[in-house]
Give the backbone structure.
Amino acid sequence: MCKIRVKSVILIGSIFFCLQVNGQQKEVYQQTSTGVEISVPNAITGVKKIRLQPVSDKIIHVTSISGKDFPAEKSLMSVKPSATDVKFSVKAENDVVVLSTPALKVQVSTTTGLITYLDQNNQLLLAQSKNVAPALLPKVYNGEPSYQVAQLFDAQDNEAYYGLGQHQQGLVNYRGRRVDLVQYNTEIAVPFVISNKGYGILWDNYSITRAGDMREYDDLNALRLFSKDGNEGWLTASFALKSAPKKVLFTRPVSEISQNWLSDQHKFPAGVAMADALVTYEGDVESDLSGLYQLQLKYAGYIKVWLDGKLVAEYWRQAWNPGSAIVDLQLAKNKKVKFKMEWLPDGTESYIGLTVLTPAPEELKNTFALQSESGAAVDYYFIAGLNADQVISGYRTVTGKAVLMPKWAMGFWQSRERYKTEEDILSTVKEFRDRKIALDNIVLDWSYWKEPEWGSQEFDPARFPNPDNMIKTVHKQNVNIMISVWPKFNKGFDIYDEFDKKNFLYKRNIAEGRRDWIGKGYENTFYDAFNPEARKSLWSLMNKRLYSKGIDAWWMDATEPDMHSNISVQHRKDLMNPTYAGSSTTYFNAFPLVNAKGIYEGQREVKPNDRVFILTRSAYAGLQRYAAAAWSGDIASRWEDMKSQIGAGVNFSLSGMPYWTMDIGGFSVEKRYEQAQGADLEEWRELNARWYQFGTFVPLFRVHGQYPFREIYNVAPADHPAYKSMVYYNQLRYRLMPYIYSLAGQTYQNDYTIMRGLMMDFPQDLKASNLNDAFMFGPSLLINPVYTYKDRDRKVYLPSGQGWFDLYAGTYYKGGQEIKADAPYEKMPVYVKEGTILPTGPSLQYTSEKAADPITLFVYTGKDASFSLYEDEGTNYNYEKGAFATIDFNYNEAAKSLTIEARKGTFKGMLQNRTIRVVVISANKAKSLDFDQKADHEIKYSGKQTIIKL
């Protein structure tokens, strides 16, 4: 029997507790004002001490070390690592120390060092796996002692994992997958994972991290390979000219495909020019081990993969920005599968790689791991919640509130790569206004500076002779202007010299003499955003040369940082080593966070009440507190890329950051579209129309891409269905502005998420939770993008638990079924959840054109419904001081009544009186989405409660 003995010693607010074991007294734990420190000298993972610190009833900060002292470094991602106002208790019994809060019990075994998380009903939430995985392996980086850190957890039955940033493999549920958290042009690393079992883990580490299955990928020869002719040991690679694909020039045996980086270009054989080549890999694969083999494909150019004659993958990426995909290969023991892969490099430099993740061994099949290259400790936050919204709220408790974006950011943005002159900008804005196509923001992309002076943040007077007047003219038309700012500086002009003299720049890229792709090529490097003085200097430059002229928002490009594309990850780390904070290995993924911090804090210091808005290509945990949104990088203008953005946006939003967007239409364009005619032109137009429909229902509505120009009127003429569809959805976005801006308001006020994976609202419906081609836009709208050329219908699954109404026709459908939904060229299937109040406003040309008066409430009956209309001043931070108003709408199905509650709050310019129109839709009475139809009820509302019998 174990007895607890309390030592009569109190040191600096700490109490030492001991355990009597076999007649010997052992120090077990030390309780402090913020938590408990537990000694685990024989832990199976190698840790020696564990610290548990409640941040709230539902959040526990966990730190594990192998030495005596916990690290003192301040977290970059966390603003609340601990708290002193949380009630908790600690006790030890049967070799287990238990920390309890009103919501949680955290058990630490003093013999194994393993941690188990339970709710107060003793329901298991998460348990550390008994499978031995070293938690802390000593490493040294740039002369700094560190550790490779890891933690392995057990996965429960039907457990699913979401979040982890933004990735392009089209996956939503990461159970059984390996997810690499490495900042890259189209990949965003965020070490925050949400489980459908009522918790999330925020992994406080800035280095490259693996999540899920942490095993290494193997070369292709992990499989038993057979050539095209049946010889064992290799696949056959056949090389031909793309102009004569059937005439094989020569063949090579291959058992490894690894042309992954610039440094690998020599691996391509000299017998044919890469740009002219067609390469085919053929043969059979088999294994003694049955199960799922995950093929990781890296590609640039055109790639196709067939398994047993079935086409399972078809992609294209521009050669300078390779993509990646996962191809699932199910093998039965010793049964061959025919393999064929066709690669058209489509460039003088191109990339292809194929590796394999073999089936997980039995002991790892039901586990989930987090493993990082470098850290001082195992450091993470366990965040419990009854649903995903509560877990995300916990994430924001730790990392900061999601700052509210300016209202105009919810409107339509027009961008292209790129507007080259002042006249390009002015004529585009004028054309939108002349055509009465709504517009709130126009974006000036890179290279507005003199060609040699990248980093000057100064307009080239030859092409932008009067930027001050240009900005004023844009503003007079009620359009905002966003401008591109890179963290890059060319060598050879005064700003570079100034930053270099102050040691604000990374040195290695210059020392290697590396040049960029512009003009003759210029030596260049990036600034060290980890240096607070460097951040201040960059902002000072931006303020002096851009913000003071009236620029409204910032497009922070290449913030991975991407100093030179397609060099290896290790080389990328070398180029930014050392950082001001320490080794680049330790801090590799955090650059976009500190970069945004400098801009946000700089602007708020200059104009404290003007809302900051930043768009950044990369992101990290905590970014939402710096008024920053992310977009999905330089994706391809391809149907499969469009589909992949659904999973990318859903999981980014589930990573705790509510503002995400993409290049509607895709960024990079195949040659066939550059001067498209005939069938190619029609596919281009349909691709843009379908993508525009999808883009209407993501948090930020933004068009961007390379030539051909992306303005609606440049995609198609006014009588074309593509043009008509895009104009319709443009206006629909603005009609929905009361709904959309209310959702934005809730992201700050209630930690809401706008773009919602179906697991958020339908956690009990496992079919819905695993869908990768649909999502909710707010609480009411089920969005089903059409991502296949010429499709005029698509399968749609309607989640169970409620019925659904077709948005456009008002037709009712039962939930829990898959339907074949109509998808004519000009419309995308959208369904409204039964029990919805959908507020809509007047037709607008820009968000601030007029107040939402009249406001029309479409009430979809069948279940109780509610919605809270949020309004504020739209462009300032007065909402942080309480200057906002809400009107709650509540529909009671049993009473068939709608209650418009008394308005709460006030703000300058608030509409005191307004007209509220009510349109009622029921299962037996369909009504179309006609904003001008006669309302069933019309109320003059002055802020007092009103009850209407429907």
